[in-house]
Amino acid sequence: MSDNEDPNVISEEALYEHLDHYLSTFGSERSILCVSELDGFLTALGCSAQEFAPDFWLSAIWGAEEDQPKWPSLKEEDEFLSLVLIVYMETMNTIIHGDLHPVYLEQEIDNGESQLLVEEWCVGFMRGARLTGLGLDESNHDFYNEVLAPVRMFGTEAGWEKLEKMVDEEVDFWRETIEPSILRLVQFNHPEIQSNQLSDKPPILH
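Now predict its structure.
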């Protein structure tokens, strides 16, 4: 550790590893099970016109009341809470600055190449959208259908069925429209934010 490093600041890699451990260990089939899904869920919260306190959405990470974890110790519960709030603040910070850096998964394929997996992030986003009622505004029905279409494509069973019938170029098109569409949604509900559509920062791979 260098002299300039703060021992109290957790690295991004360690943050994600710890969260993945807690989510996979204490989650059920109705829970968010990875950091990518969690980031999508939190991004949906930030896209809403309303602001939601952690008490509103923390339990939704796990599912129904019977899915809430039985923590072995208060220390582990507190650590999980602090880690989630770090990711929440980081996600909200990017949205406030009109930017977006989704935490996507990466899968190795043939010849040492890798493939971007956006499905978990989109599933998490749709979970957050359902929780907050995002997109249910009938007065802006067409707009919400348009900007949520790419996320629904990769984050719902109906969308997966459509993707199976598409050629690679069509799938790539829908994948590439996820981030621009979410940025449009952010700016629609938060017009004070200047969306940085030209950001050259890549998504975070996990």
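The two ends are 23 Å apart (CA to CA).
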